[in-house]
Amino acid sequence: MSTDLHTGFDEEMYPYINKGLAGIIAFSTTKSFIDGEKGELIYAGYNIDTLAENATFEEVCFLLWNDRLPNTSELEEVHEKLKKHRALPEPVVNYIKSTDKKAEPMSVLRSAVSMLADSDETKGKFDEALFMDQAISITAKIPTIIAYFDRVRSGKEIVEPLNEGSTAFNFLYMLNGEKPGQHAEKTMDLCLILHAEHGMNASTFTARTVCATMSDMYSSITAAIGALKGPLHGGANTAVMNTLLELQAQGEDADAVEFTKKKLANKEKIMGFGHRVYKIFDPRGRHLQKMAEDLSVETGHENFYKWSMDMLKTMKEEKNIDPNVDFFSATVYYSMGIQPDLFTCIFTMSRVSGWTGHFMEQAANNRLIRPRALYVGEKNLDWTPVEDR
Q1: Please, what is the end-to-end C-alpha distance for the chain in angstroms?
Q2: Which helix H or strand E contains 34, and what residues bound it?
Q3: This model's pTM is above 0.70
């Protein structure tokens, strides 16, 4: 048995590494539960199907922050606070106006969120009494940041947030410059519900890790955005849409089956399929599939849905893997007139409710997160003077 005298790490006791922390339970949580075998997702006790059919995004925010649904007066209070905090500080607006029109939206969003701490009178102080107001403020401002940036880069006038309507309603209004219809609002609201929370994923783990150092909530959410930005996490739906646009470039008669088989033969990754947790169809995907079908007909994007279904069947037959939440969300967002590079930003707009819920949960029973690494390099090498190397 050998023990590293510097670290006290007994290498023979820890001969294996769970790559990607697969199967490692690092926290207990009341925020969500996933049963990958059954394809079940639960937010704080409520099945995602129940929430998708009955809840609003604002109710889901309250649920993830308080572990219970709000009553009428509590829901109204959350609505009012979210509306009150929609406006951005002037330095953040100036930053958005000054960005390059070709800047990556998630990079702009990440930087803008980090700037919000400067305009917080408490400077993001780590104080349980302040966390709820910070969570509400960040959640309210992220849609405004996204909409402002998209209009600025398109050469359009910024549309100020309304002091009315839901988060979904106000976002679509600021993005498009006109009040959305009831169907569009409901569709966006459902998308926000479906993406709000999802267990100990990479960005949520990041948020909790930063919180565990007793850093501020703004730093935690900024770091989480950085994690979500990656194509193996939140960026996958943009990649899915780019694949569909690649098919569109081949013409209306494009063969999605042959296209998919060719990519598989070339060992290319097909984004939007497979999941580290789910072994069957992602439960969120079924709701998005229905929305994608309806919207594609309504907006004249039937080919996107047809190609998606052909790809789905081919992947099932060839690889026996099912689509994840990103696969159909791509068609849904695109059919709503949202540019592909904004898809992950909208994911952020929703997931911030879960991140902030986890931040508060971590802070309430905090311990610094400090895993160990198995050192596999050489030791005690002889020193060689630089002129002899």
Answers
A1: 34
A2: strand 32-35
A3: yes
Q: Is 326 a catalytic residue?
A: yes
| Burial of 300 (C-beta count, 10 Å sphere; 0-12/13-18/19+) | exposed
∠ CA(147), CA(149), CA(151), 5° rounding? 70
Angle separating helix axes 128-153 and 343-364, nearest 10 degrees: 170
- 351 HSE (CA, 13 A, CB side): 28
Query: Could you tell me how far CA 128 lies from the centroid of its own chain?
Result: 24
Looking at residue 178, the DSSP 8-state letter turns out to be: S
Rounded to 10°, the helix 128-153/167-176 angle is: 30
Domain borders along the chain are 34-227+341-364, 236-335
Instruction: Round to whole Å and give the CA distance between 131 and 217.
Output: 8
Place of tokens 């929703």: 350
Q: Identify which of 178, 159, 19, 29 has the alpha carbon closest to the alpha carbon of residue 88.
A: 159
Structure tokens that stand for 176 in this block = 């498009």
| CA 63 – CA 314 distance, rounded (Å) | 38
- Return all residues near 318 (Cβ < 8 A) that are at least 6 apart: 260, 261, 264
Catalytic residue among 79, 85, 195, 275: 275
Given this structure, which CATH class describes domain 236-335?
Answer: mainly alpha
| In the predicted structure, residue 5 carries a pLDDT above the cut 60 | no
Q: Which two tokens stand for residue 120?
A: 């917080």
Q: Three-state SS for 46?
A: strand
For residue range 340-359, what is the model confidence (pLDDT) as tens digits? Answer: 999 999 999 999 999 999 99
What CATH number was assigned to the domain covering residues 34-227+341-364? 1.10.580.10
Residue 3 is classified by DSSP as B
